[in-house]
Amino acid sequence: MTSSFWKQGIKQASIIIGAVTITSQLFGLIREAVIANYFGTSAEYDILLVALAVPLMVASILFAAIPSASIPHLQQTSATGTRNIFRSTLFNISTLLIFGVTIAVYLAMPLLGDLLAQGMDEEGVNAVVRFGRLFCLLIPLRSYESLFRSFCHVKHHFVFPTVAAVGFNIAIIIILLTSFPSLGSLSFILAWVVGMFVQMLIVGVPAYLIHKRAAVAKAVSSFPTGSFLRFLGVIVIIESIGLTLDSFDRYMGGIFLEPGYVSATYYANIVYFIPLRIVIYSLATAMFPTFSEQAVENDRRGLATLYHRAGALCVLLIIPAAVFLYLFRNEIIWLLFERGRFVIESRLMTVEFLSYLLIGLFFNSIFLLQVRVFYALKSWRFFIIVRATSMGLKVAIGLLLINSNWALALAGGTVALFVLAFFALEGYLIIAKKLVYSTDDRKLLARAALIAVSTVAVMTGGDYLLTQFVDMHRLVTGAVVGITGLSLLVMLDQKLCVSGINLKK
């Protein structure tokens, strides 16, 4: 195979990840449509989501923490130390950690079930514990996938780690369609476990082959086990704070709200994360190995330039996407989910929550890039303070407003969290880490803002005119507005050169 198949640059990787992520998101939406048809916003689905919360949160913490800690250390040592990744020090250390955490969560599920399932009857609590222990299988599967991703990304290989999500969604869809309703709730659990296993294999096999074919470095430093474990512990704390967002919303919904609200927040988050997964996760994943290399080489100017270019892309793409989703949020939720047990009331709850979430989409996107910069720099003390403080703000807003406006209490608290975190971290990067904006950086951001504002003006104006003077279905209006806005954005980008992609080439 060609060298470009085994190794990709930032631009090439971003395009590959973005394109494949779109495909994955389409399958993901089909998956959620199938789930919505079978479960809707029901008490049964609330139980499954509550049971899934802790195992998935722990798995997600390790999924984020292991690559964030291992890639900078692997780059410092120049190689894994062996062509067989299963014999590497990193793999052995991670294995002990993964199984230790899995056993701990499994044993703690009765206590966690009592905590998370407050407001449910005894039968519901028992179901949460029973299902939660089955979901513990996700922890080693997800964690090993992240470990294999580390071995791929350190070699600048992004193809198979990106394709894996497509396999995950296809596996879940097939199992749900073939096992529901005969297995009932167990079909949902089986689908998740098998889907995660397929995803792990899609990443693991190429990771093994990539390192097996790689030439052994002439001089390889010993893997810094102590440094890795300390940094991993720090990242686990940081990611734990961040991933309590979803659990906190489910916890508050289970205590203070009627059945169905927990499910509504879940469906709203599916739509909310579409632009983040397609654009920001692609950028962050493609850029992180280079961020780490620049940090190791103490190239602050190069790191600042790359980070600010990513920020300009956020302005260019995320702001118009947030406005479009807000304009047509009702129609999008109706199109994706309203069938079977997902009824009109389900849509109204989901739209209400999504409306507040979208206000903070831009700040969330920038924050995700800031996280990668801080991990590359191995700068964590101030980061932990900001993470904890911003989470405290969300909790305070949630507790204060939950009885008067549930959507503002939960989604509004999330928005406030990311706004506070963005400004605090940005100031620290500029002042303490000297990642200052050069004249070229400021000009790039200005061009991106101009394109974003122009696109938003055309979309909102077009929506108003079509709604007032043309009798057409809202979905058709959305399609016209979306195509027009995207066309304008691409045309202006080609003239002002923000993305760096030249379509003529």
Question: Structural class from helices and strands?
Answer: mainly alpha
Percent of residues in helices: over 70%
* Overall number of strands: 0
Can you give the mean pLDDT? 85
**Rg (CA only):** 23 Å
Shape: globular
Q: How does the SSE layout of this entry go?
A:
Layout: H1 3-6, H2 10-39, H3 43-77, H4 89-116, H5 122-135, H6 138-153, H7 159-179, H8 185-213, H9 225-256, H10 261-296, H11 300-327, H12 329-337, H13 344-357, H14 361-377, H15 381-401, H16 406-431, H17 439-469, H18 474-496
Written overview of the protein:
The chain has 505 residues and is mostly helical. It has 18 helices and no strands. It has helices spanning 3-6, 10-39, 43-77, 89-116, 122-135, 138-153, 159-179, 185-213, 225-256, 261-296, 300-327, 329-337, 344-357, 361-377, 381-401, 406-431, 439-469, 474-496. The relative contact order is 0.11.
